[in-house]
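Private note to self, pasted from the team thread so I don't lose it. Backbone tokens:
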């Protein structure tokens, strides 16, 4: 029997899945394994992507309204950069549903047929390995190019995607540029990768600034241009982008506890300030206790042994 290219793709996917070591060697193979073993998908399944009802799409848009508002101008500029190459631009939510789209009217019919339209569901459990779904499953920027897709029916697509994070650093969606042109070359693909990554960071920054519009927005050290901090009038950090959180180990708990901006910009000085404050508290407790270490420890709510260790660490032992 003569095998078609579509048959060959399904055979290749199934052959890779049957190789127990394939997932460890390739991120695409790992996604194929998830698609088949975890989600129960068949590479030859031909039904189009699921489409949300209008009410569900409207609710999804409302949930990400601030991010969508921040994204309008960056999306327009991204489409201006890639539209002439036969690409469309999609912004999706965490569930892989495009909520915003940019595309040339002449290409609309083609992209509708592929399911690259608002309201369609492109998460990995529904569509297998694909740019949007796999980006969201793995939380990283990637390109799924043609035969890297799980479904045979999607192998005509090339999708470059970057994750989108909200003002709290949470993964909330993705930014995708997709093409179904056969003449998409490596050089153009490289330009698309850079454009998608840059635009995702612009959207995140605009959304962050909007969320903390009453605070000063500062660039954190050592985190790149995406590492932004929101600082209030008391010089406390009240918000941080994902890049800033990763660069400086900023958590929601640290923010809630009151994080001085100096602890980020001059950690050595902040540590010395904390040491000075601790030294002062110990000295005041000893003064009130007339130099009695046990009484001072009770006042501070620590054990006598703990206070002795503090005295040594703070250079106060000889004065006790």
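Design output:
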């Amino acid at each position: 029997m003569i095998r078609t290219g579509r048959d060959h793709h399904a055979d290749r996917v199934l052959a890779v899945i049957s190789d127990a070591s394939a997932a460890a060697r390739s991120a695409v193979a790992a996604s194929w394994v998830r698609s088949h073993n975890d989600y129960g998908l068949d590479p030859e399944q031909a039904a189009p992507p699921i489409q949300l009802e209008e009410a569900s799409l409207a609710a999804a848009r409302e949930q990400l309204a601030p991010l969508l508002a921040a994204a309008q101008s960056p999306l327009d500029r991204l489409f201006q950069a890639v539209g002439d190459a036969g690409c469309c631009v999609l912004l999706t939510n965490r569930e892989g549903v495009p909520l915003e789209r940019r595309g040339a009217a002449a290409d609309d019919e083609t992209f509708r047929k592929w399911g690259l339209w608002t309201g369609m569901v492109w998460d990995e459990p529904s569509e297998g390995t694909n740019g949007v779904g796999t980006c969201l499953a793995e939380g990283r920027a990637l390109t799924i190019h043609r035969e890297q897709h799980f479904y045979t029916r999607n192998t005509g697509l090339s999708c470059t995607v970057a994750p989108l994070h909200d003002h709290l650093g949470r993964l909330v969606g993705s930014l995708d540029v997709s093409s179904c042109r056969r003449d998409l070359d490596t050089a153009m693909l490289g330009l698309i990768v850079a454009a998608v990554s840059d635009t995702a960071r612009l959207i995140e920054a605009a959304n962050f600034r909007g969320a903390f519009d009453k605070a000063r927005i500062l660039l954190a050290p050592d985190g790149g241009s995406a590492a932004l901090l929101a600082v209030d009038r008391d010089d406390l950090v009240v918000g941080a982008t994902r890049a800033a959180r990763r660069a400086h180990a900023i958590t929601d708990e640290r923010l809630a506890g009151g994080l001085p901006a100096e602890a980020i910009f001059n950690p050595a000085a902040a540590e010395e300030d904390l040491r000075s404050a601790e030294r002062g508290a110990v000295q005041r407790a000893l003064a009130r206790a007339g130099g009695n270490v046990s009484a001072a420890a009770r006042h501070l709510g620590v054990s006598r042994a703990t206070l002795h260790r503090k005295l040594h660490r703070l250079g106060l032992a000889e004065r006790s």
